[in-house]
Specification:
By secondary structure, the chain is mainly α. Helices cover about 70% and strands about 0% of the residues.
Length: about 130
């Protein structure tokens, strides 16, 4: 039981390390940044979670801009475990209108349409002309 749990946690760690950007890796090697592990109560996970900052928002927007299919974008967003506030901040950065009544799912749809959908529509228009 314990071994299986440790293997699963190690796999999460490896997945995280594989996703580290080249810039972040260089910063870690220069000791400008560090990787931190900590044990937290799951119930307080969202309460203690820091909000996304500008660089992180830009990385997400750039990644979504490079994705070719809406489904791939949806999968990417799901892996990030974004909070409602995170998604709203990204939408604000994109100047995309939303309301407080919008569900999280609707906000995610707007995020996809503002990035991938916009690009796909633009490409379709350019091909028709």
């Amino acid at each position: 039981m314990k071994d299986k749990f440790l293997i699963q946690e190690f796999e999460k760690y490896l997945t995280f390390l594989k996703k580290i950007s080249h810039d972040d890796l260089n910063s870690i090697l220069k000791r400008e940044k560090e990787i931190v592990f900590e044990i937290r109560d799951k119930s307080s996970k969202l309460k203690n979670r820091e909000l996304l900052i500008g660089d992180e928002i830009e990385k997400i927007i750039n990644k979504l801009g490079s994705v070719e299919k809406r489904e791939d974008g949806i999968n990417y967003i799901e892996t990030l475990n974004l909070t409602r506030i995170d998604i709203e901040n990204i939408l604000k950065k994109l100047d995309t209108h939303f309301t407080k009544k919008d569900s999280i799912q609707r906000l995610k749809e707007k995020l996809i349409e503002s990035t991938i959908g916009f690009k796909l529509r633009s490409e379709a228009i350019q091909k028709k002309v």
